[in-house]
Design brief:
Elements lengths: L3 E2 L2 E2 L4 E6 L2 E6 L5 E4 L13 H10 L7 H5 L4 E7 L7 H15 L4 E7 L8 H8 L1 H6 L1 E4 L8 E6 L5 E5 H5 L2 E7 L2 E2 L3 E2 L13 H7 L2 H4 L13 H12 L2 E9 L5 E7 L1 H16 E3 L3 E7 L13 H8 L2 E10 L9 H7 L4 H9 L10 H11 L4 E4 L5 H6 L3 E3 L2 H12 L5 E4 L6 E3 L2
Parallel strand pairs: 5-21, 6-7, 6-11, 7-8, 11-14, 16-22, 17-18, 17-21, 18-19, 19-20
Antiparallel strand pairs: 1-2, 3-4, 9-10, 12-13, 14-15
Helix pairs in contact: 11-14, 13-14
Length: about 425
């Protein structure tokens, strides 16, 4: 039996599954284990330090002048960064970006704008963990609030027909810079780049329509796909309209360390990063009766709202009626009141039917995650391994709760038989499952 792991081919009996800030052990009989799928990025070794990688990228921008030169003469600068749900290593990247801007414009008035999308506000404690005390104590930080209409500015109509309404700080500045990281994304193709603007700092109405039932259901709204993807196309159009002048996006390994960085033009630098990630994230879509995965641990596994990302990867490997086991701490609960209400509102088919009737301009916040969950659950039972989310609520959300991977696997064997083939994708967010 060939087991695909970072260290070669050998039988695996105990597999560590990322979970919250650590991991949980999965114990499995090797006769059932069809494959363990790790993206190559988890064993990629950079030949420079994280800081050196970032500085090299900034010194050699893609399709752009350097940030130092672009900053010259700019007085009001907005630097968009990610929120507490993303693993952007801002403790490393932000000080370097701020330094480059101030080299070009020593007296620049810089605002760090946290792109929350429709997520809850990032707390000060979370900011200190993400950015470090020096930045929190000495820099101007604004947390985007998509629900404050007075903070927004209408710009135009997007290609999809959606109204583009964005945080006015991005419009009123002399220079707009964004930072983020790139990984496969379950309906935008890849994260990073243009996503800092849409959904990052847009109004709830713009985010909702960009994530409408019709857009999510599009055949090209899929992991690793940007060509012909209407969600991606709206995002790029929006970012260009507010004149994002410079981006810094990084690639991360399984330990959330920087292994590559891409700086420069909004589109060109992001595309280079996506090419790099695609090359390292691809894994064969090995079919299993049971597929076990996770959201890669903290921060993406802190709520159920983020979990369809890995479940979508598992779906690509699940055979007909295959069982999916998702490990996610959900320490922050469902992750959204609208999402929670939808997930608890009825049977799988009732929820799906309700969502399918909602026109784009009436899109309910967070409904896209319920849409993806119900689409998958029509074909596959989902066992959710969580020690923080109330198990009765998990049942009401049409999933099966478990406290450990082993407990979940025992349940899955009851459903699929003791000889079931098992595929394990320890980090389902980092992996891009491709049919061979």
């Amino acid at each position: 039996m060939t087991i695909q792991t970072p260290k070669g081919a050998f039988a695996v009996e105990t597999i560590k599954i990322p979970y919250y800030t650590s991991s949980v052990d999965l114990h499995i009989d090797k006769k059932n284990l069809e494959a363990v799928l790790y993206p190559r990025m988890h064993r990629y070794k950079a030949d420079k330090s994280e800081e050196e990688i970032v500085r090299d990228a900034l010194a050699n921008p893609i399709g752009s002048d350097t940030l130092v030169n672009i900053s010259r003469g700019k007085r009001r600068v907005v630097l968009v960064t990610s929120d507490h749900t993303r693993a952007v290593p801002s403790r490393i990247t932000l000080p370097i970006l701020l330094g480059e801007i101030r080299k070009g414009s020593p007296d620049a008035d810089i605002t760090i704008l946290i792109a929350t999308g429709l997520h809850r506000a990032t707390t000060e404690a979370e900011q200190r963990r993400m950015f470090g005390d020096a930045i929190v104590d000495n820099e101007k930080i604004v947390v985007h609030d998509a629900f404050r209409s007075e903070d927004m500015r209408r710009i135009c109509v997007l290609p999809s027909g959606a109204e583009f309404v964005v945080n006015r700080l991005a419009v009123d500045c002399d220079l707009l810079v964004t930072e983020g990281f790139i990984e496969p994304h379950f309906f935008a193709g890849f994260s990073g780049g243009r996503k800092s603007i849409l959904p990052g700092i847009c109004s709830q109405e713009t985010v909702n329509e960009n994530h409408s039932y019709r857009a999510i259901a599009h055949v090209n709204a899929a992991p690793g796909v940007t060509a012909g993807n209407p969600i991606h196309e709206d995002m790029v159009y929006a970012a260009r309209k507010v004149n994002v002048r410079f981006i810094l996006n990084v690639a991360l390994d399984g330990e959330k360390r920087i292994i590559a960085a891409f700086a420069g033009d909004l589109v060109e630098a992001h595309e280079k990063g996506c090419e790099f990630i695609k090359g390292l994230s691809r894994v064969p879509a090995v079919t299993g009766d049971i597929v076990i995965t996770s959201n890669g641990g903290y921060p993406l596994d802190q709520n159920l709202y983020q979990s369809p990302k890995a479940v979508t990867t598992a779906e690509a490997c699940a055979g007909e009626d295959g069982v999916i086991i998702m490990c996610a701490s959900c320490i922050d609960g469902f992750g959204g009141t609208h999402f929670e209400k939808l997930m608890l509102s009825g049977t799988i088919h009732e929820i799906s039917e309700k969502l399918s009737r909602i026109p784009p301009k009436e899109t309910i916040p967070e409904m896209w995650c319920a849409q993806i969950f119900t689409r998958i659950m029509k074909k596959h039972k989902i066992i959710l391994v969580t020690t923080y989310l109330d198990h009765e609520l998990v049942r009401k959300a049409n999933m099966i709760p478990a406290s450990t991977p082993d407990e979940a696997l025992a349940m899955a064997y009851e459903m699929k038989g003791k000889d079931a083939r098992v595929v394990v994708i320890p980090d389902g967010v980092a992996a891009l499952a491709v049919k061979q």
